[in-house]
Amino acid sequence: MEILENVYWVGVIDWDERDFHGFEIVRGATYNAYLIIDKKITLVDTVKHKFFPEMIERIKQVIDPSQIDYIISNHVEMDHSGSLVGMKKIAKDATIVCTQKGKYGLCKYFDCGDWEFRVVRTGDEIKIGKRTLMFLEMRMLHWPDNMATYVKEDKLLLSNDAFGQHIASVERFDEEIGVDEAIKWAKIYYANILMPFGNLIKKKLKEIGDLGLQFNMIAPSHGVIWRNPEKIIESYAKWANFENENKVVIVYDTMWKSTAKIAKAIADGAATKAKVRMFHVRRDALSEIMTEILDAKAIAIGSPTMHNTVFPPVAGFLAYMKGLKPKNKIGLAFGSYGWSGGATKEINRVFEELRFEVMEPLEVMYKPTREELEMAYDVGVELGKRASKT
Ligand code: FEO
Predict the structure, then answer these.
(1) Is ligand 1 within 6 A of the CB of residue 161?
(2) 307 is catalytic
(3) Are 262 and 381 members of one domain?
(4) Verdict on whether the full-model pTM lies above 0.90
(5) Which helix (H) or strand (E) holds 72?
(6) pLDDT tens-digit profile of 261-299?
(7) Domain boundary at 187, 216, 240, which?
(8) Exposed site from 119, 200, 307, 332, fewest CB < 10 Å?
């Protein structure tokens, strides 16, 4: 598909994938690669190894792939460089363009002994004919090697993972699936991949502003292409700023429904003051839970105590959340126990590591009484009140 004159999408649609290294991608994914036809023929990124034949077929519809002069490797991760070895076997003389850390990473994954590299830094340019490619390092967004490629004449940013979404679709552009729908998928992607890097994203957006870069189009390596780049940049600025809504997210698991009863009482109380979203860690996708947590002011996590500690499925969720480093939240731990507690202490420990404002935990022995559920309701009201003071 020609997305701009002489710029082709030559990626693949992965309708089947549901697990992207732990991130549940409920609607599949795309791996977008782009082919620029100019005096020097340039391929920007590749696709997962298993889709190499499909990508080559797409390239062949435009040119003979052995004519490719440059292969831009914006990112080492295998969903983008998995077909590099195959490409180099066909385009033997192609120069790989990447960052210093990109070269290091590629040569750790592949035998790149005789490959020719051109290592670039922010601001470096390569003239490929009528077009000029400018490179923008995107360190730790989300690997040390990441970069983006900017086609100056087209004001086109080939942003790799940044601004991506995991969604398989026949549509290639944001307005074709609906811009709001595209933002929804981008938010899920951001929450599960980029949330820990909010401060770096803020700096990067400022750097882009300082460089005076303007975008007519942002073409990421996952999902649809942004013909409305201002919408996704605006959303990234908001997410990177850790802006919260008046929202309480309740996440729990339960053994004999006692913790579930407390969760529901907290939800009823909180709902009198704020928006509430409730999730069960074994029934709901962690990626969906984290998307709601991204912009929620208050998080309540409930777990029964098992073997003096947190219930294992809740422990798994806590590990996932801790890695994604949500910020600027209020935390409430709750749960039931039999003869000794332990779960709420573990939950609070994670809240403290994340520097949440921690509320007094709510613990109930065995099954909650009517009075204890009323207390849980009141705690929910307090949580909702605090969440609405954003
Ligand atoms: Fe970091 Fe899409 O790979």
Answers:
(1) yes
(2) no
(3) yes
(4) yes
(5) strand 70-72
(6) 999 999 999 999 999 999 999 999 999 999 999 999 999
(7) 240
(8) 307
